């Protein structure tokens, strides 16, 4: 709902790709529950447990958390409590066996 989504440059860019803007209702976090859940997980598992001396240090730690841990190693309930890497490997092994 931020002003950046109302900017003419933003509107022109999404129009260029035949996209349409989508905004949730004001003050309703349930409109985007998956990403709200992710932000809560990120804060609980990383941000609240340490202090960052600089923005760059925080940016690097968050990037590593997402790219190395969350997207590859952290077990996910929606993946039957497997890591994304293990789930993907098992999926392809099952495809080969089938």
UniProtKB/TrEMBL annotation:
InterPro entries documented for this protein: Integrase_cat-core, RNaseH-like_sf, RNaseH_sf, Transposase_IS3/IS150/IS904
Domain Integrase catalytic intervals: 1-92
Highest taxon above the source species: Bacteria
GO biological process: DNA integration
Transmembrane regions listed in the UniProt entry: none
Pfam families: rve_2
GO MF assignments: nucleic acid binding
PANTHER family: TRANSPOSASE INSF FOR INSERTION SEQUENCE IS3B-RELATED, TRANSPOSASE INSO FOR INSERTION SEQUENCE ELEMENT IS911B-RELATED
Protein's recorded name: IS3 family transposase
């Amino acid at each position: 709902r931020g002003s950046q989504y109302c900017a003419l440059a933003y509107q022109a860019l999404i129009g260029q790709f035949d996209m349409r803007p989508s905004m949730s209702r004001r003050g309703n976090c349930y409109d985007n529950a998956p990403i709200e859940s992710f932000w809560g997980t990120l804060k609980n598992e990383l941000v609240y447990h340490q202090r960052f001396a600089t923005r760059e240090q925080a940016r690097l730690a968050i990037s590593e958390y997402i790219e190395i841990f969350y997207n590859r190693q952290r077990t996910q309930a929606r993946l039957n409590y497997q890591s994304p890497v293990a789930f993907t490997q098992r999926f392809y092994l099952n495809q080969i066996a089938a």
